[in-house]
Design brief:
- This protein has 15 helices and 14 strands.
- The radius of gyration is 21 Å and the shape is globular.
- α1 crosses α15, α8 crosses α13 and α12 crosses α14.
- It is of the alpha/beta class.
- The chain has two domains: about 190 residues, Rossmann fold (3-Layer(aba) Sandwich), CATH 3.40.50; about 180 residues, 3-Layer(aba) Sandwich (Rossmann fold), CATH 3.40.50.2000.
Length: about 375
C-alpha cells in the first residue's frame, strides 16, 4: 500500500481542504495516509493517522519545522504532500534524506497575501512580496508536482516543468448529500443572515457591522451570525466594540470558531449566506470556499462583486452581487432577500442544483488521484 504523508506547520489537522477533501479522498482510494499538522494530540480519525503538532508563535515556527521534518522522515512515506510556503525551505532536506517525491499544495496567491498581512510592518510588505514573487516559483521547481486551489494561483507557476493540477475547494460529496437531506423539509426561515469563515478586515468585518445596523433599522427581527475565527485575534474585541457602539448586541451573535462537523447546524438555521470580501488584490483572485457551502444548503447569497465571485454568483439568480466596500449596497441586497422569502428560496435552490451538478468535489478527487498516478509512474519510470 502506498503511504502518503501530508504536512503542515500552519494549518489545523482538520482543515477542510487538507483533511476532509484531500486526505479522505486519498484514504478512500486505498492509500495509507498520515497527516502531520497542528492538532492537540495524536489520533486516528476516519482511518487517517494524525500526528499532532503544537500551535506556536510565528517566531518559533522555524524550530517546529525541524520537529516536522524528523516526524515526517519517521513515517517512511512514499510521497510527501505539503501545504505551507514556509515548508519550501524544509522539503529540499526531506527529499535529500528520504529520496521520495514532494508535492506542493498552493492555497493562496501568497505574494498578494503578504501585501495585506496585518501583523507585518507596512513598509516591509512590498519588498518581501517582491522577493517571494521570485523565490516561490524557483523553489517550486524542486518539487515533484504542484497543486493549486484555483486557476489564478497557478499562473506564476506556468513555466515550472512538473505535473500540475488545480483542485477547487468544492464541497465533498458527503457534505453535499448531508446538505440536501438537511434542507429537504425546511419551511419558512427566520430572518437570520450567516457569515461563515475566517473573520478579517479584508473580509469585510467593518462593512458587515455597518450594513447590519441599516438592516436592523429596517427589519428589527433580523439577526446576524458570525461563525469563524478572528485574525488577528485582537480583531474580535474591535468588532464587539463596534457592535456595542451601534447598539447591535441583541442582533449580532459572535459565535467564533466551530468544528467543521457543526457548520451544518448554522447553515440550516440561516436564510441568507453573506460574503463581504473587500476589493484587495488577493480577494479578487482567490475563490471563496464558503460560496459553495452556502449553495449546498440552498442559501441565497449576497456577495461582494469581485472577479473571483462573478463566475459563480449571477446577480438575481443565485443571489445578489453588491459593491464590495459599500455597506448600503450590501444592506439593500440582504433586505431584498429577507423581504421576499419565495424569491430567496428559488435562488437558493438554483445554487444547490449547481453544487450538486457542477461544483462538487467528485471531479476534483479524480484530478487528485490522477496527479498521484503521474507522480508514482514517474518514480517507476525513473527506476527502470
Amino acid at each position: 500500500m502506498t503511504h502518503v504523508c501530508i504536512l503542515s506547520s500552519v494549518h489545523q489537522a482538520l482543515d477542510n481542504r487538507i483533511f476532509y477533501r484531500e486526505a479522505r479522498s486519498l484514504q478512500r482510494a486505498g492509500y495509507e495516509v498520515t497527516l502531520i499538522a497542528v492538532h492537540p494530540r495524536d489520533e486516528v480519525k476516519n482511518d487517517v493517522q494524525i500526528i499532532g503538532l503544537p500551535r506556536v508563535p510565528r517566531w518559533q515556527r522555524p524550530r517546529l519545522w525541524w520537529t516536522l521534518l524528523h516526524r515526517a522522515l519517521a513515517t517512511r512515506a512514499d510521497v510527501y504532500h505539503f501545504h505551507d510556503p514556509e515548508l519550501l525551505l524544509v522539503t529540499p532536506w526531506l527529499r535529500l534524506l528520504s529520496g521520495k517525491p514532494t508535492i506542493y499544495d498552493v492555497h493562496e496567491a501568497h505574494t498578494d497575501f503578504i501585501q495585506v498581512k496585518e501583523y507585518m510592518p507596512t513598509r516591509l510588505r512590498s519588498p518581501l512580496a517582491s522577493v517571494f514573487r521570485r523565490v516561490e516559483p524557483w523553489l517550486a521547481r524542486l518539487q515533484s508536482a504542484l497543486v493549486f486551489a484555483d486557476g489564478q494561483i497557478a499562473i506564476p507557476f506556468e513555466r515550472v516543468s512538473c505535473p500540475q493540477t488545480t483542485l477547487y475547494n468544492f464541497p465533498a460529496s458527503s457534505f453535499v448529500k448531508n446538505a440536501a437531506a438537511a434542507t429537504r423539509e425546511i419551511g419558512a426561515q427566520e430572518p437570520i443572515v450567516l457569515y461563515l469563515g475566517g473573520l478579517k478586515k479584508i473580509r469585510g468585518t467593518a462593512v458587515m457591522i455597518e450594513a447590519f445596523q441599516t438592516i436592523v433599522r429596517e427589519m428589527p427581527s433580523a439577526r446576524l451570525l458570525l461563525v469563524g475565527p478572528f485574525s488577528p485575534p485582537d480583531l474580535e474585541q474591535e468588532v464587539r466594540e463596534d457592535i456595542a457602539r451601534r447598539g447591535l448586541q441583541d442582533a449580532v451573535d459572535v459565535v467564533g470558531s466551530v468544528p467543521f462537523e457543526q457548520v451544518g447546524e448554522y447553515l440550516t438555521r440561516a436564510s441568507v449566506g453573506w460574503l463581504a470580501w473587500q476589493p484587495v488584490l488577493k480577494n479578487k483572485k482567490n475563490i471563496p470556499t464558503k460560496l459553495f457551502e452556502y449553495m449546498a444548503y440552498a442559501l441565497p447569497i449576497v456577495s461582494s462583486d469581485l472577479p473571483s465571485t462573478r463566475p459563480f454568483i449571477h446577480d438575481g439568480r443565485e443571489g445578489y452581487l453588491a459593491t464590495a466596500d459599500d455597506p448600503a449596497a450590501h444592506a439593500e441586497a440582504i433586505l431584498r432577500l429577507l423581504r421576499d422569502p419565495q424569491a430567496a428560496r428559488a435562488m437558493g435552490q438554483r445554487g444547490q442544483e449547481l453544487v450538486q451538478t457542477q461544483y462538487s468535489w467528485d471531479a476534483m478527487e479524480e484530478r487528485l488521484l490522477a496527479l498521484y498516478e503521474a507522480v508514482l509512474q514517474g518514480l517507476t519510470g525513473s527506476a527502470t
